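Obj: model holo form, ligand = 3,4-dihydroxyphenylalanine.
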Amino acid sequence: MKQAIDKIQSEAEIAINASSNTRELTEVRVRFLGKNGEITAIMKNLGSVPKEEKPAMGKMLNEVRVAIEQMLESKEKTLAEAEKKARLLAEDIDVTLPSPKSEHLGTVHPLTIVKNEIIDIFLGFGFNVAEGPEIETDMFNFQLLNVPKDHPARDMQDTFYVNDNIVLRTHTSPMQARIMTSQQPPIRVVVPGKVYRSDDDASHSPIFHQVEGLAVGKDITLGDLQGVLTAFAEKLFAEDVKTRFRPSYFPFTEPSVEMDVSCTICHGKGCRVCKGTGWLEVLGAGVVNPVVLDMCGIDSKVYSGFAFGIGVERIAMLKYGVPNIKMFYENDLRFLKQFK
Ligand code: DAH
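Output (holo structure tokens):
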């Protein structure tokens, strides 16, 4: 029996060394250690061994089993590592190869194009970019902008109220108050973002986009506002675009203006798009109301500023001649693909 056990051990060793992959090794494991394997078979023969030799044989068998187990394990490790290496090599991808041409490449959404253009122009003028919350307090959305509770100016904006003190922001202007209550001049910032109003027709959507602008410093005047916004219009529309500023009303600016640009279609002669006036209204603006500066903790005797609010959809409709605001949200590929 001892000879038989020795033979199993040396055969196992040979078989293990000869295995060239883990699958073969598993076969070897089954052959020697499996339920119907050679070790199990010889264990069954233990019964026929003389009584006094049994313990020694049992011990020997066990040692051989452990030895085979160890050889299997160490070989298994070596083979697994080699196989992993080979697999990684085979799966190696050349990321520098050109990809196959796709029919369905995405494009940048027209509203994103216009928003980025607006931001880029103001970055060029030395403005920073900030963003704020879309769910806003009544305090920031209205009160700090000089629109007290129950003030008739609230009717200018059809507001979604969450409760008495929380609204979906109706404009990006609350960021003016957030910025001014948290930092001192000089301030030059633009604020892109979504805004919400209970309003819905061909040129209004309950969700739309604005870019707010604010500059606060010493000796800032209405003239600075006109200069900056005219330079902006020239960059956004065309070098030769004309601007005009009409008196308007916003509670947070005094004086307030609306800026028109000469019609981009007829260049001022009068057409369907500008309804024969030669002008297109593009944004609201004004000199920051001193009351707002003081409420936000900026001394209006020392500082002044200007602010403006640009409707991104409105600009995009003018720039691309889009007749209905809903076209921006329907995601019709025939529409979107035109902005490649
Ligand atoms: N917040 C105004 C609106 O949504 C637009 C606006 C007007 C913003 C004048 C301003 C401003 O900063 O000075 O109708």
